[in-house]
From TrEMBL:
InterPro entries: AAA-ATPase-like_dom (IPR018631), P-loop_NTPase (IPR027417), PDDEXK_9 (IPR012547)
Lineage: Bacteria, Bacillati, Bacillota, Clostridia, Lachnospirales
Domain AAA-ATPase-like: 20-218
Name the record gives this protein: Predicted AAA-ATPase
PANTHER family in alphabetical order: AAA-ATPASE-LIKE DOMAIN-CONTAINING PROTEIN, CONSERVED PROTEIN, WITH A WEAK D-GALACTARATE DEHYDRATASE/ALTRONATE HYDROLASE DOMAIN
Length: 534
């Protein structure tokens, strides 16, 4: 042992949970990597300060594990990671040299424990023992301990060094063990024992946790109440590390000769802390496969989407319909209990879907929307496999009216609009052109798959009611829709022609359908006429 080289000594420190090394991040660097190393500089500034306890929550497939592997590679003793970071932004920071491979790092992936250990009342005790056994490989003196916190304290006494603790998917226990009160109570006790304020300063230089949901409150306090949280609702100043930014996606599109406009329609739509962010997994998958598609898998969160849409909270159905039609809807995120079970209102469901990544949140306007084509497809899939028959009917009916419009079948369009009016709109509110506009927007929900929708646009000598402009790659005709109340559908069509509304399409080379729709209060019938223009 006396002749052991320094490299061998370093390798001896690499364990299963303690100082796992840089192999994970090296694998990431061997493929296309978007530089997110600025996160390290942020954490360096937090080390050994009251802000050193960090919890970052974001949806699945938004790079949580990539970030933890990067942090492990940077901080862990027992390896040399200089080459992995030499060409990244962090190498330019003043803190780079000071902290590079200078800490004992414990890395815990809670999903790994859940997949390899039996879910019994002893689960948390098994997790503690697994970690203690690994620590004892490097520090045999702690093998006699039965509590993780005691092992860490003894390790601190032996080394005189503070740890960095990284916990990936810390909230997986609450997602996977719902209803297992004994397991969850023990897990909460474990977290509280680790993060007691009296011990935190002694043991940890920093803690970085990831999860999907923000930290849940239990009674009047949280299990880890001293953490600084950064979430999809409150991300600042880490918003640029939540996903890929616009500039990063544009750079990737240029490098791989991809159409940024189409990439934007498929995967943009999240505005987090004022920054547009994209789902990294979906962007990279679309580049790898050379195909724009939905790359979200049907995991537990997909089931949650379907189940929560099926909940009969007042106003939830109308909100979903409005969002499918491209609308933004107000939401109060304050009452959410940060779990997947304590749903008491429409706002709770909408807030959960923000954290799961199924809704985009505008923090200035406090409203939500379906962010992009990929997520819209997930909503449609959830609706088709759910129990809300009225939502499914709305989607199918919208498909039919869009097809009838393309086929210039005005009679069929009018029939479907009549159905929607009779079934979904109270007569007392159906009394003007604005009410008609609401019905038409509901009727054309499926237009979002093919069109960008604009309303009341100055055009020619007037204002066009609704324009459906084809999205990039769509081969469908543009639609100009004019609405009338107690007049005639032909008069609506004539207005489009007489006031030259088609001038708004200057430069557009595709076909155009002019759609005139009227409602007659006496007959209580809608009429529609459609004319094609080249």
């Amino acid at each position: 042992m006396e002749n052991m080289t320094s490299v061998q000594k370093k390798q001896k420190l690499i364990g299963k949970y303690l100082n796992i090394g840089n192999a994970g991040f090296r694998s990431i660097r061997n493929s296309e990597y978007v530089d997110k190393s600025g996160l390290i500089d942020f954490m360096n500034r937090c080390l050994n300060t009251p802000q050193k306890l960090i919890c970052v929550s974001r949806p699945r497939r938004f790079g949580k594990s990539f970030a933890t592997k990067m942090l492990c590679a940077y901080y862990s003793r027992g390896c040399d990671s200089r080459d992995l970071f030499a060409d990244l932004k962090i190498a330019e920071a003043a803190s780079f040299e000071q902290n590079l491979n200078q800490y004992d790092v414990i890395y815990l992936d809670i999903t790994l424990f859940l997949s390899t250990l039996k879910q019994s009342d002893m689960l948390v005790a098994q997790i503690e023992q697994e970690i203690i056994d690994d620590l004892a490989q490097s520090y045999p003196e702690i093998a006699v301990e039965h509590r993780l916190v005691d092992s860490l304290c003894k390790m601190n006494q032996i080394t005189g060094r503070k740890l960095i603790l990284i916990i990936d998917e810390w909230d997986a226990m609450f997602r996977e063990c719902k209803g297992a009160d004994e397991i969850l109570d023990n897990y909460i006790l474990l977290l509280r024992s680790l993060f007691k304020s009296s011990l935190t300063d002694q043991l940890f230089a920093g803690v970085y946790m990831t999860g999907i949901l923000p930290i849940k409150k239990y009674g009047h306090e949280s299990a880890v109440s001293d953490f600084y949280e950064y979430s999809m609702v409150e991300p600042r100043p880490l918003q640029e590390y939540i996903g890929f930014t616009t500039e990063e996606v544009k750079s990737l599109c240029q490098k791989y000769d991809k159409d940024y406009t189409i990439m934007q329609e498929w995967y943009d739509g999240y505005t987090v802390g004022g920054v547009h962010v994209y789902n990294p997994k979906s962007v990279m998958e679309s580049i790898l496969r050379d195909k724009y598609s939905s790359y979200w898998t049907k995991t537990e969160t997909y089931e949650a989407l379907r189940n929560y849409i099926d909940m009969n909270f007042d106003g939830l159905k109308d909100t979903v319909v409005d969002m499918l039609g491209g609308e933004k809807c107000e939401v109060d995120t304050g009452s959410f209990q940060n779990d997947m079970t304590s749903m008491k209102s429409r706002d709770d469901v909408l807030t959960l879907l923000i954290h799961l990544g199924y809704l985009a949140y505008d923090e200035d306007k406090r409203c939500v929307s379906i962010p992009n084509v990929e997520i819209r497809e997930e909503f449609i899939r959830a609706i088709k496999n759910g129990n809300r028959t009225e939502l499914m009917k709305a989607v199918l009916r919208s498909d039919s009216i869009l097809q009838a419009t393309w086929e210039k079948d005005g009679r069929k369009v009018a029939e479907i609009v009549n159905e929607i009016h009779n079934e979904d709109t109270a007569s007392v509110f159906y009394n003007n052109e604005q009410a008609l506009r609401s019905v038409i927007k509901m009727a054309y929900l499926s237009s979002m798959d093919y069109y960008s929708k604009m309303e009341e646009i100055p055009a020619g000598k007037g204002v066009a009611d609704i324009l459906f402009f084809p999205k990039a790659g769509s081969q469908k005709p543009a639609l100009i829709v004019e609405l009338k109340w107690n007049q005639s559908e032909q008069k609506a069509l004539n207005q489009i022609l007489d006031k030259k509304y088609t001038s708004i399409l200057k430069g557009y080379q595709g076909d155009v359908l002019l759609v005139g729709i009227n409602y007659n209060e006496k007959s209580k019938e809608h009429g529609c006429v459609i004319q094609e223009m080249k």
